[in-house]
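Hey, why these numbers?
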Amino acid sequence: MLGWVLFSEKDLFLRFTMSAVGSVEKTPYALGGALTDFTAVSPQISEKLFLILRKKFVTDVSTRIDTPTMGAYVPFLRKALETNPYLFIYLKFYAECLILSCSDKEKLQSVLREFLSEEIADEFLPSMLLTNDADQTAEWLATVIGKDMEFRRSRTKSHIDDIVSPDSSLAKYTPAQRLYILKCESGSGLGGSFKMQISSEFDFDRNANLGTVKASLIDNPCTVMPEFEINSPDDLIALELLYTVKGELPIKKCRLCGEYFVPSGRSDSEYCSRISLGENKRCAQIGAMRTFKGKYAENPIYAEYNRAYKRNHSRLRNGKLYDEEFRDWSAAARKARDEFIAENKTVEQFRLRLTELEIE
């Protein structure tokens, strides 16, 4: 079991066991926000996080006689837990597999088979590569677990498309009906069986004395709600999708980065609050500047710049540009855009300038 999840009106609460001693971390997230943030995670960011754990593991193995323990990774994992629960689940599982590769390689394949999506398990496990070289083992595990995370991320994004897009083949159904239809399709990942118990949003120790619990409830009034066991990433995905749709929370596509988000403030927000790849400001901040400069919206130079931006942003997301390359291009293109508008130059002249700035 990975942990437990509870849902309130606009929040979800997650409880995870963080270490062998059984300490439980409880973290609240905005309902729908955790899931859409997961679908917006780029492979470049997740690869960097996996690499941090990989390097630490290899260092620990080379400098210790005994097997590394989970406690060594808890500080890093707590930061991941604060960021996104789905990233945390994958990073925690990776750390557990690294430790298992030192202590019980024979058990590792069954653990991977239980966690991974069927598609990724069938592709990679028959040629499972585990050696006595810690770095090679860590690299193989990072590849397989990272592929699984990307597969589920992409599949979930496709599900959200089907649920909210007016162009969906399921457009004649309500969002809840669309979710149900997707759940009934084989391979959707949404058909889990969930073990539920009655719980409280207040953070009680599982073995707490009932008298202590009753006294705490008087001082800390809270909501009693269903709590579900999470046995795979698909469980959490399915549950969060269900409660987001049931709560009729708006799932929107950011006008800047093109990723899904659930507005945390005004429901008519058109921009998410994330910092997109290659940018140093949040999409909402950039969107506000766009609105401020709305008087230039019909300017052909602005239109040409936006087309070039979207093209290069797509190259960045597909790994054909590095972050630094995109940042440098974006800064130079914005500067040229503003100068050409101020000097009343033609769009043809601006196109030539963009050609000069283009990164091969």
